[in-house]
Amino acid sequence: PVGPLDDRAIKGAIKDDKAIAEKLNDFFASVFTAEDVGEIPESAPSFVGDESEELSRIEVSLEEVLEQIEKLNVNKSLGPDGIHPRVLKELKWEIAELLSVVCNLSFKSASVPNDWKVANVTPIFKRGSRGDPGNYRPVSLTSVPGKLVETIVKNKIVKHVEEHNLLDKSQHGFCKGKSCLTNLLEFFEGVNKHADKGDPVDIVYLDFQKAFDKVPHQRLLCKLHGHGIRGKVLSWIENWLKDRKQRVGINGKFSDWRGVTSGVPQGSVLGPILFNLFINDLEKGVSSEVVKFADDTKLFRIVKTEADCEGLQEDLTKLSDWATKWQMKFNVDKCKVMHIGKNNPNYTYSMMGANLATTNQERDLGVIVDSSLKTSTESAASVKKANRMLGIIRKGIENKTQNILLPLYKTMVRPHLEYCVQMWSPH
Question: Quick one: which of 39, 205, 286, 378 could link to 424 by a disulfide (CB 3.0–4.6 Å)?
Answer without folding.
Answer: 378
